[in-house]
Design brief:
With about 230 residues, this protein is of the alpha/beta class. The protein is built from seven helices and seven strands. The longest helix has 22 residues.
Length: about 230
Amino acid sequence: MVLTSRDEKKGTAAVRGLDPDGGDVLYHQLDITDRASISAVAKDLPALVPRLDLLVNNAGIGSWGADRRASARTIATNYFGSRDVTDALLRFIPDGGRIVMVSSGLGELSYMGRDLRPRFADPSLTRPTLDSLVNSYLSDLEKGEAKSAGWPSAYSVSKVAMNALTRILARELAPKKIRVNSVCPGWVRTDMGGPGANRSVEVGARSIVLGAMLTKDATGGFYRDGKRIPW
């Protein structure tokens, strides 16, 4: 197992907590908003592990207010960063491998304005079109027109886009039988979720693990606690 984090000190502490004796969990620093950092992981990975049977994209930040800079950072991290890491590491995932995108219930289409929903839900949606949709949100945000255009919070936009990307990846990688699914861990008591969240880290993590253990025909879906949920 290879664990990555933007903050190296916190990452190495997490590795020690998971694997006190060392050897089973390895560490590499990664900032998913930094293309050089992503390239460094891709370059160094073969020296750490022979392949990636499972890729879990768990990095994320939250922005629910009107702060434009924070909103843009949220999109850059949760959508573009996860997309770029996946693309960079795809060559290490063997046929039959798995990708889990850690999403959120706030990424359900119902949070979008009615005119936006069918554009994200289009089963033939392509990567360029999805990127264009996300960039149109950023443009509306910059103009102060995001709310009137039907956009929810930046966090919701980022997770809706992640779920849409999941479906695109599932379609693209079907010939290699690589399964790609989004998973909602629920509202978890993490630094972002806060102490008032109704789920422990262990319960949230279990939902992610169950998402990685779905049946071989499960791909392109949205799950919580191992059960498919509406997108």
